[in-house]
Amino acid sequence: MCIRDSVSGVTQTEGNFTATFRGSTAEPGSLVTTTGYYVQVGKMVTATIDTGAVSWTGYGGVATVTGMPATAKAGFDFVGSFYSSGGLFESSNNDGIVCHMDGNSTTLDLRAQDSSASPTWSPSGIDTIMFTITYFTA
Predict the structure, then answer these.
(1) Taking the CB of the first residue and of the last residue of the chain, which one, N or C, has fewer CB atoms within 10 A?
(2) What are the residue ranges in the chain where pLDDT is below 70?
């Protein structure tokens, strides 16, 4: 749906996108995908996902999510909230992970909030991932 304010000229768009979870060194035969929801007001995008309970078996290496709904503005980094229900990532980062997007990208990655290191997958079964991020487009 697209709404345009005739006075200010600001456009609001909202809809769904498909988020695909990736691993840099190992991936299962069928990648985990989930439908996310986004709202874009002018150049500001807020996107959120909730995978529900799914199996993460087979993932390894650095975790990323592809398919974000719009390209982030070049020259900036954007950070958002992140939640996982279990020990999906190496234990040294389980006390604080944030989601992150580099400028000029549609890929989201994860960062340890205390060191900016990229947490690696360490899945042990069925867990839930949720995140929300707000970023700007060009």
Answers:
(1) N
(2) 1-7, 91-95
